[in-house]
Write a sequence for this structure.
């Protein structure tokens, strides 16, 4: 059964954060808060954990469009091909924030994602998510959780999330109520911004 860990976004407790990071390093799967909906995630370097996340989502890993949660833009060069100045400036304006940016993937992607030409990058405006990635030292591969009966109504109450997922994951973080609007998805892989999904993040004045 999963552990239910309370972490306050304003001032994340280091000991609790460390428990979650240790779990991720050992190949655990967690549910954690972002600046949009709660996410299901694992360490990008753990093959078995990646398989588990895909299984929980009911998809094949090579077909999955997971997001990479990063702490800041310094992780980008590890997973994304070199981007031009205009694109970089746009990312700096928008992030941290409620956006997923689709960018051209580099050759350094983990083997599970080698066939992917693009990757979705997220830097959430949420201290818990960013602190986890910072302490872990590499991105968390992530997917949103939602209720099967209403695909667009994302689950927002951590206690209800725990009830539903306690036998499927290792840790559920209670970081307060989540949002029920997903991130705005913008494709930058061609160099020209293209709105794929309008979510929480506003595109006004972004480009």
């Amino acid at each position: 059964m999963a552990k239910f860990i309370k972490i306050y976004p304003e001032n994340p407790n280091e000991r609790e954060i460390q428990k979650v990071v240790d779990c991720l390093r050992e190949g655990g799967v967690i549910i954690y808060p972002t600046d949009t909906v709660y996410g299901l995630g694992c360490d990008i370097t753990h093959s078995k954990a990646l398989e588990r996340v895909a299984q929980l989502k009911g998809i094949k890993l090579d077909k999955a469009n997971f997001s990479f949660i990063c702490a800041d833009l310094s992780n980008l060069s590890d997973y994304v091909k070199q981007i031009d100045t205009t694109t970089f400036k746009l990312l700096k304006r928008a992030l941290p924030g409620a956006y997923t940016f689709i960018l051209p993937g580099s050759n350094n992607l983990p083997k599970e994602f080698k066939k992917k030409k693009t990757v979705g990058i997220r830097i959430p405006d949420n201290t818990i998510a960013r602190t986890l990635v910072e302490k872990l030292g590499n991105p968390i591969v992530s997917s949103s959780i939602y209720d099967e009966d209403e695909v667009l109504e994302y689950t927002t109450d951590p206690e209800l999330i725990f009830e539903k997922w306690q036998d499927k994951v290792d840790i559920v973080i209670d970081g307060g109520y989540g949002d029920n609007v997903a991130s705005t998805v913008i494709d930058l892989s061609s160099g020209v911004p293209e709105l794929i999904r309008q979510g929480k993040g506003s595109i006004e004045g972004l480009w």
